Amino acid sequence: MSDDRRSLRSILIPLIVFGVAFGYLEAAVVIYIRRIFFPEGFRFPILVPPNAYALVELLREAATLIMLWAAASLAGRSRWERFGWFAFLFGVWDVVFYAGLFAVLRWPESLLTWDILFLIPLVWAGPVLAPLLVSVLLVSGGAALAVRKRRGRPVRVRPFDWALGAAGVLLMLGSFMTNHGVLVAGGIPERFPWAFFVAGWLAAAGAGVRVLRTKQ
């Protein structure tokens, strides 16, 4: 085995282990939260917890992002490699999180079951399939970017790539947050803007492919 492959494996395996373990930990925390606030089963309309608990949850989500970034920073040698590992870890963590919930609670019932995804800066919600599709993008694109930089190959992001990627991210974020007002008012979300989400997903994927095809 070449030194390059050995070095890459020594980074990739611990990161996968960390992502899987952290995803299970997240699932365990959410299982406890649902037992407390949704003893009859998680469903909409959501129960808004007291302010003290809401703050705890917001800080927990922020801490999750910080921990993922810290692990990626330790693994990467450059800015782009660290970003790639962060995206990869985020995707692995999210997939394992839902796998853990299904293993223990048999939830979600289907990929179209709605979930509360995030609370920063607004309430995110959508069918489980949507964040899993984002995770596929993060795992594949993040790993490809990080490996590319680890092997010393160039990464060049042109203005059009920035614009395309930013448009994709904004469309997906907007899709997740479009039901914020309904949720905080105690309502039940009825529709997810799949057209905007898919357009954003394709735009982000296209930007990633363009960047990863950089030759110099």
Structure description:
- There is one protein chain.
- It contains seven helices and two strands, in the order αααββαααα.
- Strand 1 (114-118) and strand 2 form a beta hairpin.
- Strands 1-2 form a two-stranded antiparallel ribbon.
- It is mainly alpha-helical and 216 residues long.
- Helix 1 crosses helix 3, helix 4 packs parallel to helix 7 and helix 5 (159-177) packs antiparallel against helix 7 (194-212).
CA(first)-CA(last) distance: 27 Å
Count the DSSP helices.
7
Shape: globular
Task: Indicate the structural class.
Answer: mainly alpha
Quaternary? single chain
* Main sheet overview: 2 strands, antiparallel
Strands, count? 2
CA-atom Rg in angstroms: 18 Å
Brief summary:
With 216 residues, this protein is mainly alpha-helical. Helices cover 70% and strands 4% of the residues.
What characteristics describe this protein?
216 residues; two-stranded antiparallel ribbon; globular
Give the SSE layout.
Elements: H1 3-37, H2 51-75, H3 79-105, E1 114-118, E2 124-127, H4 129-150, H5 159-177, H6 180-184, H7 194-212
Antiparallel strand pairs: 1-2
